[in-house]
């Protein structure tokens, strides 16, 4: 299935059938691995939320809203170029490695410079030291990104998942111990840094590749151009997501930012655990299709990935609308009552962000990072407009406007332009997206209609029963669509012909 040269570990060659088979197998590995990570993450979130305060989470939320934007700079978009390009030499890869390392050190230095300004802006001295410590992750990330890109280029997602499970588990154990022993928000700092450092160590060992010294004779301008466009698109995407958190912090202070961060964390936890990794797999797989002869294979895989992401994202949104208070109580405990209502308001984001992210990955795999950049610019303008026209009315109206506008403006616009550029059949959108959305609407309507009956059974066991009932009804309704039914049964049989 794969021919990898010992002299050049970046040289890979898949057949179309091999890509399809690998996609199905890797999807199952990702789902299994992410279930383990999800359990560990939910446990750590529940544990830490019962020990640490909203202020502790608020300090980290404000710092990470800045570091998350800068984190997109850690590889200059070059990891995307490495995964996407058809061929790359060892020296080209080595040059990119040293550029990434230099970017990592530069980002850390920049964070050190702006840390006093952050502390002054929010009138919180703790922000300065936290931001400096969090910025050390850029060094680990800068050195590690090329090793990770090599594994993704090989489509070696089994190794990637093992690395992620080990590093996250280790970080959670250390963070929980620190929280128990009174380190406060420093436990959350460790939880952010340790997975990046661990990933560097294990990925470097697993990749079996070591960089050469930098060579000025090797030209990598074509990679820098592709990576630069992808980089700006990625920065805009992160800034778009972080914008609301930054405004909430400015309006409602550290405590308000902490509450919002817990709500958006729960809304995005399923996406981060399952949907985004599958999007990365989709991009890596689609990048291996070359030439017009592979167009049908590309289209089938792109639509299959969209169908999988849409079905899961819409289910997640439905659960958040119906059982937001239950989820907030299970994950965070009794002391976070305000989070439940925010989860319900932010529920549409559980659909919008994963689908947008997947389409951006597919466009990049098609060699259209410029289109992704244009879409991200439009997306950022739309979100900025939604926030600007609503923030003066308060936090809740702003969040409602942001979530509703994302579902009604951002998502349709992104889907329409992406389908045009990818030359995908708009009729396929019915089974991929619209029918699952209709099924979720029916289930939600039924539960809201009989809300009084559901609420009368307010015990924990009854709430779990109704959650499972909603999940089952949604799944049964999906089976009424013949295309989805064939796709699901084919996936369960690991039939690569379904894509």
TrEMBL record:
This protein's record includes keyword Transmembrane: yes
Main subcellular localisation: membrane
TM spans (from-to): 29-51, 95-115, 127-145, 157-180, 186-205, 226-251, 263-281, 301-323, 343-365, 377-396, 402-419, 431-454, 460-480
Keywords: Cell membrane, Membrane, Transmembrane, Transmembrane helix
Cellular location(s): Cell membrane
Membrane topology, record value: Multi-pass membrane protein
GO cellular component labels: plasma membrane
Family: Belongs to the polysaccharide synthase family.
The name this protein goes by in its record: Polysaccharide biosynthesis protein
Organism: SAR86 cluster bacterium SAR86E
């Amino acid at each position: 299935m794969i021919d990898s040269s010992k002299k050049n570990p970046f040289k890979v060659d898949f057949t179309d059938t091999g890509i399809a088979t690998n996609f199905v197998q890797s999807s199952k590995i990702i789902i299994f691995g992410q279930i383990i990570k999800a359990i560990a993450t939910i446990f750590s979130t529940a544990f830490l939320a019962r020990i640490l305060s909203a202020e502790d989470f608020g300090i980290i939320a404000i710092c990470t809203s800045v570091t998350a934007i800068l984190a997109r700079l850690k590889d200059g978009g070059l990891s995307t170029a490495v995964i996407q390009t058809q061929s790359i030499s060892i020296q080209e890869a080595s040059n990119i490695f040293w550029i990434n390392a230099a970017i990592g050190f530069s980002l850390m230095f920049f964070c050190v410079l702006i840390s006093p300004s952050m502390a002054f802006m929010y009138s919180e001295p703790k922000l300065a030291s936290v931001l400096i410590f969090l910025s050390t992750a850029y060094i680990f990330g800068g050195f590690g990104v090329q090793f990770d890109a090599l594994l993704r280029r090989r489509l070696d997602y089994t190794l990637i998942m093992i690395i992620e499970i080990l590093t996250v588990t280790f970080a959670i154990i250390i963070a929980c111990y620190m929280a128990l022993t009174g380190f406060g928000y420093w436990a959350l700092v460790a939880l952010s840094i340790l997975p990046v450092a661990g990933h560097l160590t294990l990925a470097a060992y697993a990749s079996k590749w070591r960089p050469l010294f930098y060579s000025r004779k090797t030209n990598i301008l074509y990679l820098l151009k592709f990576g630069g466009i992808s980089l700006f698109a990625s920065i805009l995407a992160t800034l778009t997501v972080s914008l609301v958190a930054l405004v909430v912090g400015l309006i409602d202070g550290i405590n308000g930012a902490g509450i919002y961060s817990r709500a958006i964390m729960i809304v995005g936890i399923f996406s981060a655990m399952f949907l985004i990794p599958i999007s990365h797999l989709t991009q890596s797989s689609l990048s291996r299709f070359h030439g017009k002869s592979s167009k049908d294979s590309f289209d089938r895989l792109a639509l299959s990935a969209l169908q999988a992401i849409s079905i899961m994202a819409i289910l997640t949104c439905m659960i958040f609308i119906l059982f937001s208070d239950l989820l907030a109580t299970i994950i965070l405990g009794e002391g976070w009552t305000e989070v439940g209502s925010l989860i319900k308001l932010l529920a549409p984001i559980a659909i919008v962000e994963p689908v947008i992210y997947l389409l951006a990955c597919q466009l990049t795999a098609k060699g259209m990072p410029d289109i992704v950049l244009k879409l991200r610019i439009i997306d950022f303008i739309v979100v900025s407009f939604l926030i600007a026209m609503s923030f003066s009315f308060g936090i809740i109206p702003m969040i409602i406007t942001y979530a509703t506008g994302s579902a009604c403006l951002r998502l349709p616009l992104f889907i329409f332009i992406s389908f045009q550029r990818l030359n995908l059949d708009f009729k396929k959108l019915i089974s991929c997206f619209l029918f699952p959305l209709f099924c979720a609407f029916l289930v939600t309507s039924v539960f809201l209609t009989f809300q009084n009956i559901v609420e009368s059974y307010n015990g924990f066991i009854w709430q779990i029963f109704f959650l499972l009932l909603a999940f089952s009804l949604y799944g049964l309704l999906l089976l009424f669509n013949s295309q989805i039914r064939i796709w699901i049964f084919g996936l369960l049989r690991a039939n690569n012909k379904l894509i």
